[in-house]
Amino acid sequence: MSGGRRGPAPQPRALKLLKGTFRPDRDGGMPDPEALVEIPKAPAYLSTDAKREWKRVCAELIALGVLTNLDLAALEGYCTAYGRAVTAERSLKKSGKGIRALTMLTPQGWIARPEVAIAKAAWAEARRFAQEFGITPASRTRVPHAKAGGDAPKKDPWGRVAGDRAS
Hints:
The chain is mostly helical. It has one domain. Helix content is 45%, strand content 5%. It contains six helices and two strands. The protein has a two-stranded antiparallel ribbon. Helix 2 (48-64) packs across helix 3. The longest helix has 23 residues, at 72-94.
C-alpha cells in the first residue's frame, strides 16, 4: 500500500455502542470523554445560518449522547462550512436566474462566478465534517440503533438475527 491508512476509520466508543459493534477486547481502555447534556454556546464569529445549524445539530447529537467537548472544534468546522455554503448560494441567487446566475463576463470571456467554486468547496467540506458525526444519510445508516430521542441500543444486538424481536 502507498502509505495511506488501512481499514475503517476509528470511531468513538459511544458510536460503537450505538451501532452494536463495541468489543471490549478491542477497546483501548481509555475512558470516553463525558457526553454533553446541554447545547454549548456557539462561537461568536459564526454567521447567523451557522449558529442556527449549531443549535440544530447539537440538539440531535446530544439526544444521541455522542457529543463531547472534544467534538466542538469539528462541529465548529462543520457549521462554518455550512454557513459559508449557504452564503455563497444566496449570493448566486441574487445574481439572477439560469446560467447567467452562475457565470459572469470578463475581458477573457464568460467564466463561472467565484461563488460557484466557494459553494462547491464549502458543501464538500460540510459533507466531510457531517460524515464524522454520522449526520449524512449514508453515514447514518451505519448507526442502526440510533433513534430520534436518543433511544438506547438493544442489549442483545443478536436477538433480531435469532428472531427474538422483543429484546
